[in-house]
Amino acid sequence: MKINFTNKTNKNTIYLVINGKHKIKNKELKSYTENFKFEKWEDFKIDKINVIENNKKQTNIIIFIKNEKKLLENIEDIVIKLWNEIISTNDKFNMSFKLLKLDIQTQEIFIELLAHKLYKFSDFKEDKSKYSINIDSNVDENKIINKIESIYFARNLMNMPANILNPETYEEKIKEAFKNNKNIKIKVIKWKELKKIWAGGIYAVWKWSSHEPRMIILEYKINKENRFDALIWKWVTFDSGGYNIKPTWYMEDMHLDMWGSAVSLWIFKHLVETWYNKNLICAVWIVENLVSEKAYSPTDIIKMYNWKTVQIFNTDAEWRLVLADTLSYVEDKYKINNIFDFATLTGAAVVALGEDITVIEWRNEKLLNHIKTTGWALKEPTWELPLFKKYKNKLKSNFADISNCSKSRWAWTITAWLFLSEFVKSKNWIHFDIAWPEITENHSLYWTWWSGVMIRTIVEVLKKIN
Question: Do 120 and 151 fall within a single domain?
Fold first, then answer.
């Protein structure tokens, strides 16, 4: 599926009719829209109407909306139903926003959500679909095209199977993606140096694997200040759970256990390619978590980068080990203004907030509120859970400074955050537990696995803070 920004028109048209207003030349369509009335329970309605124009059949999709407020309230459902109508024709359409006087943000949200819905992963199958949309809008076309392309590329990476995308091949893809940007330095730390710097969490998760782990740091230095905003991500290219092995129905999608990395990477990609004016780093350790005679096991004690010792209670809680070392390393090596990490950390997050709301855990309330306000406006809702220090008791170990996870069934999202907080000093740190909003098999807006949630929100937040 393609979205093209042009004033050229296809024969088929999508009309967005708000408050009954839209200039329609065809007499049959004009008469229909002028006589249309909502039922009491309807905020919007979508109809598909075929007419004859210049002796040719023309398909028209008309989206009736009561007012602009109802457009924003129902925008996800509108996009979903519009997509259903588009693919039922498998044809090309044109759509103009210029006649409607919609504000720029509303236009951007509509186009971005439509791009999400029209995404298709077809690298390994023949794709015969031919539908596309020509959009005539007064948004910043270069910015929104870059954002859409960044999200599509990230979603493609997420859907790659682990036999194709591993720590080694992913390094190649990163270097290829940024090879022409002279403002970016790429630093790669491999396993021998990993042993020297004593990043025990990463080493423990990796040490079985035939694919060497690596830390990749992308440094974008655009001004003279020696301070950076940091995007921290962890990529586990396949997560079996280790000796705490995952059961059937939980193992089959574990090539996707690197969602946070793609979120961070393509936030970074979009910003640096649209002339972001602040220094930014993006850092990740890439590993695999499988079972072998060399794999780490429950009750092992390891020493982390910041020299705290951790006793392993569950080998399927590997995310936090890798993420903790990465957070410590970045804070040690760089002067940081704000630090954001993204992790599919806990299944407990979906119990707390459901499938569509991202968990935020935080130290800076002003930054938290900015993220919440931006996310809800962009249809990427977030909500916070407390840093309730009393629950740190659940992470006690008799033989090490801390256990890698709680032995209790309760409050796993909070205790995971408490574990990570032992490895971060910054007061301007925000942690996102994006596990279920990223899994899209039950989300009718995204439908093809990884959603790319929080990319659009954090892009806007980083542009406005500092």
Answer: no
**372 given a catalytic annotation:** no
The SS3 call for residue 19 is coil
The total number of structural domains that make up the chain: 2
240 and 204 in a common domain: yes
Give φ, ψ of 362 to 5 degrees: -155, 165
Let me know if 214 is a catalytic residue: no
How many other β-carbons are positioned within 10 Å of the β-carbon of residue 95? 23
Q: How far apart are CA 291 and CA 314, in angstroms?
A: 13
For residue 102 the two structure tokens come to 């919609």
**Is the CA virtual torsion 437, 439, 445, 446 positive or negative?**
positive
Which residues span the domain enclosing 175?
Answer: 147-464
Q: Which pLDDT tens digit goes with each residue over 249-267?
A: 554 455 455 554 567 777 8
Domain boundary among 107, 139, 171: 139
Of 105, 139, 173, at which residue does a domain stop?
Answer: 139
Q: What is the C-alpha separation between 339 and 348, in angstroms, rounded? A: 23
Of 70, 120, 173, 246, catalytic: 246
Residues 187 and 108 in one domain: no
Round to the nearest angstrom and report the end-to-end CA distance of the chain: 37
Provide, for the chain, the percentages of residues in helix, strand and coil under a 3-state DSSP scheme, each rounded to the nearest 5: 35, 25, 40
**Residues 326-365: tens digit of each pLDDT:** 899 999 999 999 999 887 667 788 888 887 888 999 899 9
Instruction: Catalytic residue, from 147, 155, 320, 456: name it.
Output: 320
Distance, in Å, from the CA atom of 79 to the CA atom of 84, rounded to the nearest integer, reads 9
Q: Which residues contact 446 (CB under 8 A, 6 or more apart)?
A: 116, 117, 119, 440, 452
pTM higher than 0.85 for the full model? no
d(CA 232, CA 324): 10
Checking phi first, is residue 19 left (phi over 0); if not, alpha (psi -120 to 50) or beta? left
* Residue 243 scores a pLDDT above 50: no
